Every structure is written in structure tokens, then in C-alpha cells.
Amino acid sequence: MIEIHELTKTYGSTTAVSDLTFTVRAGAVTGFLGPNGAGKSTTMRMILGLDEPTSGSVLVNGRPPRSHAAPLHEIGGMLDPRAVHPSRSAYHHLLAIAQTSGIHKARVDEVIDAVGLRSVSSRRAGKFSLGMSQRLGIAAALLGDPATVVLDEPVNGLDVEGIRWVRGMLRDLAAEGRTVFVSSHLMSEIAQTATHLIIIGRGQLIADTSMDEFMATAAPTAVRVRSSDQDALVRMLRAPGVTVTWAADGALTVSGASAEQVGAVAGAAGITVLELATEQASLEDVFVGLTQDAVEYRAAI
Amino acid sequence: MTAIPTHAPIPVTAALPSYRQPERVTQVRVMRAEWTKLRTQPSAYWALLTAVILVVGFGIGYSLLLVTRPPHGAAMASFDPAAISLSGVQLAQIAVGVLGVLLVTSEYATGLIRTTFAAVPRRLPMLWGKAALLAAAITTVSLPAAFAAFVVGQSILSRQHLSVPLSQPGVARAVIGSALYLAVVGLLGLGLGALIRNAAGGIAALFGLLYGLPLTAGFLPGSMAADVTKYLPASAGQAVTSVQPDPTMLQPWTGFGVLCAYAAVLLAISAARMRRGDA
């Protein structure tokens, strides 16, 4: 579990993270979303005990991150997959990390097998593709069998097969009761895996919600309709709570009424319906809309 | 004809077993990790190899040169045959100092330092581990190099009956002191690297400390120049590498102690900065 309380981080006059409070629970994959520069990486560095909060607190598994006696068993993190010595082999990179906690060589081989780097483990890590580097970074995070896993943009640069693998692995880690906290700047990367969402923009919390709740409340549906007499239909649809707007191609976008209701109104008035469809705003649209607001709100101050 | 596209093989992944053996981070374990890093960092081999070549090669070269032009009269009185054969240390100090800088700045440059600090949250065991291994590695390599340079150098100088035996007072100390001097210069580099966190800046600071400071001190008026210079890192440390008593230098082990103090202060400052704050 990760507990973040009134967390603020400033670098000089720049505020990277401002008064964040949220909890990441065990047994679920929590997505950490926000546009680039929103403060995700800064927050993750503080969770890993690398950056010192300006104010506020971070607890990982109930303790400040730097106070764990067996850190690799508590928190496994990946911030930058390219953070390797370029001429050191993947195996020796992992071995050096493992040795700090007295983790056996056999475990290093296990994580290498688990991320599928067996055939390249003796090659220089600097020659790795971004996808291979991501796998190496994830391997390092899993060395100590950690209770909490924190990954910054883990599917960035992966091919389709790799993305599918990461998703499955994240779900498995959560199913084993671990806390899994995964950042992304793309909703689509997270939507299929995360069951909970933390969304930030400009360093501030925008949403702390379950995925189901987010989909239900944040993604309103609209009805798109084209008919033989659009002007008449607009008059017929006029009702409290219903808004009708013209789309660029002459169709009407109706919100506040279902497709059945719109169809019934048109039928009753003898208007021929040419096209009738329910449109759901994509999660990506909702996410962009949410974070856009935050950016504008901040800029207005 | 177009080439048939080849597909990269899909990595084979295996299920990851659990590993329920929470173990503590200890200084010894961090040393083991740092040893793995050191022995898999090619620049370490190059730096140490360069140091050996400079110590041995320059010592032999200078001895050969002196044999053709032996000193006479007054020059003979201050002639230090051991120092001639150990003169390569003056150049090798660059190689080992740069190694010290790179050992820590390479982690900052790649971002590996964050992985290291996440694994070792108290951070300082990493610095002490690097310092101990660096000093041990440099001493291990430089001691035989200094002995080789001395033995070969003296055998060359003996052709003109200019050589000194190892048993002569101060000679063995100068040979061993040369290796120790190089080890501490390595630590100076490590301290500067940890403080400045950037290879170019660290190496520049190292040059400033070893060569820039004596040059600047030379501008001081009268006897002040000599008084200040003998306390600067390079001249203080080199007292332990010379056999002939030199009035412009500190006593051998006093000088070496002053050099060690510089390294200790630098490491302490960088440790204070490393322990707190952002990685």
C-alpha cells in the first residue's frame, strides 16, 4: 500500500507536485495518469525514496520508503529503462542490484526467465532496444519479490506482444495481493489493465476513482441522428434536460435522451429517421478533457 | 527483389516463482554489488592498465635517459635514483584520478544511481563500498607496477653506478608510498565525482586540485609560495614518494597524512550531500 498525504515538491520556483493526497491499495492495478509534465515521475521518485518531499509525506507499506530494512522486498521500481551502464551485461546489471540485499544468483536467473531475456542476458545492456530495456527494468523491479511495484510508463516502446505481456503480468502481480502502481500519459494503455485510477494534471489531483465509476460518470453518452426534417426534429426534441447541437455534417447530437426516445419522437411526428446511433465519448477524450481543464484552470491563476 | 521481412523472435517468458527471503542491506553486501559493478566496467580496466603502463614505462624511460646523461657535481648531491624510476607516478595519477571520478559520475550520467539508491536507501554504503574497492584495486595494481619500475629502473641506473638498493633507508617506503599515493588520488577523484556528479566537471576539478593549485600558489610572494605549496594535495602526497630529504616538502608520512585528509574531507562533504536530498 502507498499512502500519500499532502505531498508537495518544488524545484526552485517550479512546483512539480502540489498538495497531493491519495492512497494506492494492495491487490489492484492502479493507473497513474496525467499528461507529460503533470508530476507523475516526480511523485514516483518520492515513492521510491529518491527525491525528498518539500512537504507532506509518503508511506510505502506503512513506513517511509527509505526506512525499510529490506527495501527490494518492499518496493520494486522502474523509473527509466535506459538507466543502465551501457557496457555492462543485463545479467551483471541485475546481479549487482540483487547483491545489495543478498539475493541469490538463482533468483537473478528466475527474473531473467520471467521477462524473456534469457537469450540476451550476457549482452551489453546499452545495445538493447527500448522494449528489451523495459523488460530489463521490470526484471530489476521484481528481483526482491516486492509487496509494492511502481512502474513509470512500462509499456512505452513495447510491441503488441510486449504490451500484452506487461498487462498480463500487472494483473497477475495484483492478483497475488501486491500493490501495483503504473503510470502512463495515455488512457488507452491503462484502460484495459487498471481497476483504479489516479489522475493528475499540473501536479494536482484531478480524480481518484475506480475505473468503473470513471467510465460511468465521466463518459456521458450522446445520440447522433439524421432525419428527413432536421429543423422539425429540433423543435420536437425540445424538453427540459435535453440539449441538441448541430454537427458539422448536418446531423444532430442529442444529449439527455436515449436513442429509443429520439426514435420515438421522430416516429410520432412522422419524420423519417435516416441515421440513429448512440455515441460514447472515448475514455481518451474524457481524460484529455479532464486534464485540459486543469491546465486552463492553472493558467488562469 | 525485395527482402523477406524477418521477425524478431517473441521472447519466451516463464512464470516468476515467489522469493520470500527478505534480507537486509549490509555494507558487506553493498561491497559485493560494487565489486560486480567495478569488474564489469571496462573503463576501470583501461584506467588501471594505463596507470601500470605509465608507472613502468615512464620509470624505465626516464632511467634510460639519465644513464646517457649522468648528473655531475651539485646535481649529484640531490640526485634521487628511486624517484627517477618512480617518476611515472606523476602521470599515472591522472589515470587513477579519472577512474575515481568516472566510477561515480557514470551512475549519475546513466541514471543508474536511482536504481542503486532505491536498492540501498541509506545511500552511503554505496559510497564507502566504491571508496574501499577503488583504493584496494589501485593499490593492488600499482604496488607491483611501482616495484617493477623500481627494479628495472635501478638495474638501468646501475650501469653508471647510480642505483640505490631497496634496503637503503626510505627506499622501500618510497616504492610502497607511490602505490598508496595513487590510491588516495583515486579517492580524491571519487570525492570530486560524487560532489560534482558530472564527469567533465569532476575531471576538471581533479586537474585543478593536482596541477592548478600549485600553479596558482606559485604566484604568491616570496617564501609564502613554498610554504603554501607543500600543503597542497599533490606536493604533500608526493613527499612519501621521494627518498632524498627535501626542505621544501613535508615529512614523508606527514605529507601523506595531509593528502589523506584532503580525500577524507572531500568524501565527507560529498557523503553529507548524498545522504540527504534528491538523487
Key attributes of the depicted protein:
heterodimer, A: 301 residues, alpha/beta, six-stranded mixed β-sheet, four-stranded antiparallel β-sheet, 11 helices, 28% strand, elongated, disordered C terminus, B: 279 residues, mainly alpha, 12 helices
The geometry of chain B reads as elongated
Oligomer: heterodimer
Count of individual beta strands of chain B? 0
Largest interface: A-B, 57 and 46 residues
Number of strands of chain A: 13
Averaged pLDDT of chain A: 90
Mean pLDDT across every amino acid position of chain B: 92
Structural class of chain A: alpha/beta
- Please, how many helices of chain B? 12
Overall geometry of chain A: elongated
The amount of beta strand of chain A, in percent, is 25-35%
Order of helices and strands of chain A: EEEHEHEHHHEHEHEEHEHEEHEH
Task: Please provide a written account of the structure.
The complex is a heterodimer of chains A (301) and B (279). Chain A is α/β, with parallel strands linked by helices and 301 residues long. In chain A, 37% of the residues lie in helices and 28% in strands. Chain A is built from 11 helices and 13 strands. Chain A has helices at residues 40-47, 71-74, 90-99, 105-115, 130-142, 160-175, 187-191, 211-218, 230-237, 259-268, 283-300; strands at 2-11, 14-24, 28-33, 55-60, 75-78, 148-152, 179-184, 196-201, 204-210, 221-227, 243-246, 252-255, 273-280. In chain A, the strands form 3 sheets. In chain A, strands 5-6-7-3-8-9 form a 6-stranded mixed beta sheet, sandwiched between helices. In chain A, helix 3 packs across helix 4 and helix 4 crosses helix 5. Chain A is elongated, with a radius of gyration of 24 Å. Residues 296-301 of chain A have low confidence and may be disordered. Chain B is mainly α and 279 residues long. In chain B, helix 5 (89-110) runs parallel beside helix 8. Residues 1-7 of chain B have low confidence and may be disordered. At the A-B interface, helix 2, helix 3, helix 4, helix 5 and helix 6 of A face helix 1, helix 5 and helix 6 of B.
